[in-house]
Amino acid sequence: MKACGLAENRVNDDAGEGHPMMRTDAPKTDASVIWTAEQRRMRTDQLLAANFEVVFRYAYRLTGCRSSAEDITQEVFLRAFKSIEQLRDPSAERGWLLAIARNEFARWCRLAATQRTTPAEDDIADHVEGGESDLERRDWVQSALDHLPPEFRSVVLMFYFEQLSYTEIAESLEIPIGTVMSRLSRAKSQMKRSLDEIALPQ
Amino acid sequence: MSEPKREKNLYDDTDRHLMAALHSVKIPRDLRSRLERAIQIASQEHELVDVPVTAEQSSVQGRPNSVFWNRRSAIAAVLAAGVGGLALGVQQFYQPLSQSQLVVYTQTLLDQVERNNWQTLTNADTVEIKRWLQDVGFLQQVRNVTLVGVRRLKPPSNIREATAYVLDSKSVLFDLVIDRGVQRLSHALTELQWSRSGIAAFAMSSQNRTLVFAGPAGSTGIRKHISPPQTI
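Structure tokens for the assembled complex are given below, as produced in the milestone run.
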């Protein structure tokens, strides 16, 4: 398991913070309104249907481990279920879920720091599924991500996966915008080198 | 009133290539159904937590009648009921058990382990046991340790007592007393430092007593060997 020191990648326990809460449709947007379990379930199911793939992909890219990605994905939707009233802007739902995923990744890293385990055999096996070109692509991109320090990896995924701006990333991670830019630049260079090595094997 | 305009990032061809690669991840076939099942269970638990119970219903020893479903007792009840669910069948999953019932169930399970000489099991189908644990509602509480292996077990320092029932070369049942409350169960168990080596495991717990089965799942595995206790 990769060492994941996210000292600088501070994320709020409440994943909903910082996201727009402007939803105006059913059931109710007022935080004081109590959602029934059925309402929660229905809304979470909607979120799940529309977003489970992207959440899993994001979790996988963060952890590099399919079973951990599944755990994180499940935790994301369970947390969404519990705090569904915090999501008021339907257009922000993906960002909200990915922010929860990021929080869960931080938790996963803290947990991983207390353990010294290696990637599961089934995770290794997962890498050899699919066509050769897919495999090649997956391998280089995940391998390149795995070689990035966690704080770089987060910035890369927030920029490319969540498509957040420098400012949004800086605010979310509570770091200067210059740090975001330099991390992204260095991460891109490092990843490009990995891509070049795949394209031009020695 | 207009919202502030969101900055848009500019991506070149290399960026777009990288973005496409990052999104290229194979999705597990039944992931959606498993997630839906997890939400369904969470929904059922939510209903349970919200519903006040009568004095007659809350006759479990030591629990005040009016605030039966506080967070800790709800978790304890679900975990305890999970044990009951495993022992008695899914239909009784949400019925909270008394401590005395739980002791009987636990003892019955341990007795079965000793008596029945569980057979050698094939290598785990971790997906299957995960689904099964979701079916009985157990994964909800201990999902972090449901798919762990037994090959590199290193007990944490806070295990007060541990009994290992070695069933065969691949399956072990641990009866642990962990010095933590049930709310910390998941965390404590992850500290067991299991490796994810392809052998499934599950845990069931009440108070600080925890049973951890490490071995394969499936109809030829653990499921086959757990049957209703004869007496309660």
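Chain A touches chain B through 60 residues (CB under 8 Å). The mean pLDDT of chain A is 71. Further analysis is deferred to the final report.
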